[in-house]
Write a structure and sequence with these properties.
- The protein has 153 residues and is mainly beta.
- It has one domain (25-152).
- The chain contains two helices and nine strands; from the N terminus they run αβββββββββα.
- The strands form two sheets. It has a five-stranded antiparallel β-sheet with strand order 1-2-3-4-7, with no helix packed on it. A four-stranded mixed β-sheet has the order 5-6-9-8, with no helix packed on it.
- Mean pLDDT is 83; it is low at 13-26.
């Protein structure tokens, strides 16, 4: 009887260890991150970074946008700090429209999160603010037909 209790307890603890309530690694542990584009702001104080994530064949490729201090590399742990998180993207791009204003353009996308500003204590003690503008360039809606009717595909 005691072996059964130990086995049940061990199984329970293992299942708890495999779950995580922390969303800091949204992209997943085995996710590869590919930097697609990195551009410096007009005043060279920050950089905008567009990355693509790939977690394998059964998960859609994701796109994330970050604003970072110059030279900072993006890791899986940084995914929670993204300003834009989407999948099923087409024609996604970033560009600085003016000093402290970043434009994220896309044709189609399923957007899971978006923040329209960025700031950090390390840069002017929170006083340097980047406005982030989101623009859909599609003339027939933001979602692909596959995303509008996922159960019929």
């Amino acid at each position: 009887m005691s072996k059964l209790i130990i086995l049940i307890l061990f199984s329970f603890l293992m299942s708890l260890a495999s779950c995580s309530s922390d969303n800091s690694n949204i992209a997943g542990g085995n996710t590869s991150i590919t930097e697609l584009k990195r551009i410096a702001s007009l005043d060279n104080k920050v950089e905008a970074v567009l990355v693509e994530t790939n977690s394998g064949a059964t998960v859609a490729t994701g796109n994330f946008v970050f604003v970072v201090l110059p030279g900072k590399k993006i890791s899986n742990d940084d995914v929670r700090l993204s300003l834009f998180r989407a999948d099923h993207c087409s024609a996604v791009d970033i560009e600085w429209k003016q000093n402290q204003q970043l434009l994220i353009k896309y044709d189609k996308a399923r957007i899971f999160s978006f923040s329209n500003f960025w700031q950090a204590q390390e840069l002017d003690n929170w006083d340097y603010v980047v406005e982030v503008v989101l623009k859909c360039t599609s003339f027939d809606g933001q979602l692909s037909e596959r995303d509008k009717h996922p159960m019929t595909q």
